[in-house]
């Protein structure tokens, strides 16, 4: 899904092309939606489409798409989330029609190396339901609105990110860390939950799951519904009774609630960023052995130093630890 990304697309296309050559053109389908761009993104993607056709890679690349109306303001709020959810679902359409794949790899408009994507796909030797990389901006971890630790709490933007014990230990060892939700630039997810029930291969659980929370939009779940018979997983915005959340938070949330798929991880070795200078900094400078040694031995925070958000300003800030609904307002990491 791209919008005004001409600065990242040449790099992204080159790395994805390497990935396709590694995986094999017969094992890949490329689906891309670009909409409302005013730069060279459409032309770059049309050239990529021509390249994919020459490589015999099945694909659907939609450029200058207007089938999903873009809201007048893309400030974070329900209209933005509705737009993003609908666009991601448009990206998914070829899978839901044709099936035939084991994993769905979602990529934001990030700098990421082909080798890192392979690392992501092979996390835990493939034993996962969903796994995310890490995305960075100048202050550290970027999408801390979406990622939650194993216990459902927010994380810090600063390494090693987690105060929860198992996540803290995993990141300290540069190993995959269990989380409740994540997205963070690039994601690999089991494909079967996205498929219509008649296209599934029997990999989802047949016994019913525990009852849903009354606030979940699928509540009450039909008595005979199981993960194997649940409606296809889709991106969505929050219902009026839920906490306001990103479409990329609701997806892993529903993966757990509707399908019982709870093996969700972040892989701290998979680094992405939205700006080249931050990519270089966090991919290479911050991973130099001297820096890594210092961070592991002296520079990390105590697990007891719980991450929090400070919302609002002036004399009446609100401290939020992620335990309840986001109370709204401007976000400042504390």
Topology:
Elements: H1 9-23, E1 30-33, H2 41-54, E2 59-62, H3 78-98, E3 103-107, H4 114-121, E4 130-137, E5 140-141, E6 148-149, H5 165-172, E7 177-181, E8 186-190, H6 247-259, E9 264-273, H7 276-283, H8 289-299, E10 309-311, E11 318-320, E12 331-333
Parallel strand pairs: 1-2, 4-9
Antiparallel strand pairs: 3-8, 4-5, 4-8, 6-7, 7-9, 10-11, 10-12
Helix pairs in contact: 1-2, 1-4
Describe this entry's structure for a reader.
The chain is of the alpha+beta class and 334 residues long. It folds into 2 domains: 67 residues, no CATH class; 219 residues, no CATH class. It is 29% helix and 16% strand. The chain has 8 helices and 12 strands. The strands form 3 sheets. Strands 3, 4, 5, 6, 7, 8 and 9 form a 7-stranded mixed β-sheet that branches. A 3-stranded antiparallel β-sheet has the order 11-10-12, with no helix packed on it. A hairpin with a 6-residue loop joins strand 10 and strand 11. The radius of gyration is 20 Å and the shape is globular.
Q: What's the mean pLDDT score?
A: 90
Distance between the termini: 31 Å
Total helices: the number is 8
Given the helix and strand composition, which structural class is it?
A: alpha+beta
Beta-strand percentage? 15-25%
| Tertiary shape | globular
Cα-based radius of gyration, to the nearest Å: 20 Å
The unreliable regions are: 329-334
Could you state the order of secondary-structure elements as H and E?
HEHEHEHEEEHEEHEHHEEE
How many discrete structural domains?
Answer: 2
Helicity range of the residues?
Answer: 25-40%
Topology, number of strands = 12
Major sheet, described briefly? 7 strands, mixed
GO molecular function, one term: glycosyltransferase activity
InterPro entries: Mannosyltransferase_CMT1
Keywords: Glycosyltransferase, Transferase
Protein name: Cryptococcal mannosyltransferase 1-domain-containing protein
């Amino acid at each position: 899904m791209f919008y005004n990304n001409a600065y990242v697309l040449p790099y992204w296309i080159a790395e994805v092309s390497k990935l396709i050559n590694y995986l094999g053109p017969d094992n890949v389908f490329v689906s891309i939606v670009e909409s409302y761009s005013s730069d060279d993104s459409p032309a770059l993607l049309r050239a990529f489409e021509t390249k994919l056709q020459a490589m015999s890679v099945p694909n659907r690349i939609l450029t200058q798409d207007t089938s999903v109306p873009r809201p007048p303001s893309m400030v974070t709020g329900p209209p933005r989330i509705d737009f993003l959810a609908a666009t991601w679902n448009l990206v998914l359409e070829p899978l839901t029609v044709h099936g035939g794949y084991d994993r769905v790899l979602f990529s934001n408009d990030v700098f990421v190396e082909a080798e890192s994507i392979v690392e992501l796909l092979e996390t835990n030797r493939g034993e996962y339901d969903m796994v995310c990389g890490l995305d960075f901006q100048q202050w550290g971890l970027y999408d801390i609105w979406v990622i939650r630790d194993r216990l459902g709490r927010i994380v810090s933007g600063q390494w090693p990110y987690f105060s929860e014990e198992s996540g803290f230990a995993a990141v300290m060892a540069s190993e995959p860390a269990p989380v409740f939700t994540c997205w963070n630039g690039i994601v690999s997810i089991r494909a079967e939950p996205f498929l219509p029930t008649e296209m599934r291969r029997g990999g989802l659980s047949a016994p019913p799951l525990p009852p849903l929370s009354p606030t979940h939009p699928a509540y009450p779940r039909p008595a005979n519904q199981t993960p194997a018979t649940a409606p296809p997983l889709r991106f969505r915005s929050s219902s009026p009774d839920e906490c306001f959340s990103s479409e990329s938070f609701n997806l892993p949330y529903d993966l757990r609630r509707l399908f019982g798929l709870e093996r969700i991880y972040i892989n701290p070795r998979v680094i992405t960023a939205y700006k080249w200078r931050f990519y270089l900094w966090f991919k290479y400078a911050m991973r130099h052995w001297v820096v890594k040694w210092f961070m592991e031995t002296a520079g990390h925070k105590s697990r007891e130093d719980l991450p929090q958000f400070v919302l609002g300003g002036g004399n009446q800030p609100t401290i939020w630890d992620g335990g309840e609904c986001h109370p709204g307002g401007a976000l400042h990491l504390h």
